[in-house]
Write a structure and sequence with these properties.
Layout (H helix, E strand, L loop, with lengths): L2 H6 L3 H27 L11 E7 L8 H8 L2 H4 L2 E6 L8 H6 L4 E3 L3 H9 L4 E8 L4 E6 L14 E4 L4 H10 L8 E4 L2 H9 L5 E5 L3 H7 L4 E5 L9 E7 H6 L1 H20 L1 H12 L5 H11 L6 H6 L6 H14 L8 H4 L10
Parallel strand pairs: 1-2, 1-3, 6-7, 6-8
Antiparallel strand pairs: 3-10, 4-10, 5-8, 5-9
């Protein structure tokens, strides 16, 4: 019998009560069905992941292997995060999207850029650093006769715009004027070609990268480390806006914990890390090159500080040295307050 026919056969109150009971019963059936669907096979609904955007100031390459491994191995998912890396380039400043809020985390290739940004009053904090010793330096062919800073006198050096101040600082630290070498501003893609074809005598690059490319091409290389020449700094600082430390500290702690796991895996398994990078994140990169770069960057990421506190842990002594160098060179008008720039709150236990 249909419901409306039943209702017409009963007194109004009894019909109303019956309709209410039927309505409640139908509602319970619908809710129960939804509950059963959400618990089907014991899986349940997937928890919503917190999305984190990272703005790098360089192109995607094996240098971010730990982040790639943390993604592919599910370490971020384990702590409720979904991480995406936005690649940059020679003209990309990751400070801008971090401060504007379009990216939560920025990665600069060097500590100097972050110190200079902080000196201008930009509200950022460094939460971790990747390299304990910067890979930056002069790369030359062994056949060039370059073997130390003195042998660079009068040579043509290919420099991307963001490295001009670094070259001048290295020269100043070692008592040379800026015209000691001829700086030729180049883009990153052209630098290696100019070096191989002897259009420049050396380029500024990473000791973990460009020398590997030369060697795989059968060309012996020379690398003069900026760190060995007195320009001490940590590299690849991970930084955030001040407000993120205030409002998203648990998210950032989870990110650092998962990223540490990713780097521990990458350092222990360079071949696997290179394959993950080449297959999923750095299309067109040579697997042999990526594997060798992964091996060479490992020692630069480890120190007495990281052995004691874990990978990515910042060394305050090195930051103090860099701060002093920039001040004495005139790049800073006054020293940056490191207590306002660096925070170790993401590590457990924090100092």
């Amino acid at each position: 019998m249909q419901i409306h026919n039943l209702a017409t056969c009963l007194p109004t109150r009894r019909a109303d009560r019956l309709l209410k009971r039927i309505g409640v019963t139908l509602l319970l059936i619908v809710l129960s069905s939804l509950l059963l669907l959400s618990c089907h096979d014991g899986v349940g609904t997937k928890p919503r992941l917190r999305q984190i955007k990272i703005q790098h100031n360089w192109l995607k390459d094996i240098a971010l292997a730990g982040i790639y491994c943390a993604t592919e191995n599910g370490y971020y998912r384990d702590v409720g995060l979904e991480v995406e890396v936005w690649p940059g380039g020679a003209s990309v400043d990751p400070v801008v999207p971090v401060v504007s809020g379009s990216a939560m985390i920025g990665i600069h290739t060097n500590a100097t850029s972050v110190l200079l940004a902080k000196s201008r009053g930009i509200p950022i904090k460094v939460i971790a650093t990747q390299y304990k010793k910067s890979p930056l330096g002069f790369v030359a062919k062994a056949s060039s006769g370059i073997h130390d800073l003195q042998s660079l006198k009068g040579r043509r050096i290919g420099v991307i715009p963001s490295s001009v101040s670094a070259v001048e600082l290295v020269l100043k630290i070692n008592g040379f004027r800026r015209d000691y070498v001829e700086q030729v501003v180049v883009n990153s893609a052209a630098g290696m070609s100019l070096l191989i074809n002897d259009k420049v005598d050396a380029i500024v690059g990473f000791g973990t990268n460009q020398p590997v490319q030369l060697e795989l091409a059968g060309i012996k290389s020379v690398f003069l480390s900026f760190d060995d020449l007195g320009y001490h700094q940590e590299a690849y600082p991970y930084f955030v806006a001040d407000k993120s430390v205030e409002h998203d500290i648990e998210t950032l702690r989870s990110f650092i914990t998962a990223t540490q796991r990713g780097w521990e895996y990458a350092l222990a398994n360079p071949e696997a890390a290179a394959r993950i990078s080449a297959d999923r994140y750095t299309e067109g990169m040579d697997l042999n090159k990526e594997t060798e770069v992964a091996r060479r960057q490992a020692p630069l990421m480890q120190s007495e500080v990281t052995l004691q506190h874990g990978i990515l842990y910042m060394d305050r002594t090195t930051w103090t040295t860099t701060n002093d160098l920039l001040m004495s060179s005139g790049l800073l008008e006054s020293k940056v307050n490191l207590d306002d720039l660096l925070t170790w709150q993401m590590f457990s236990p924090a100092p």
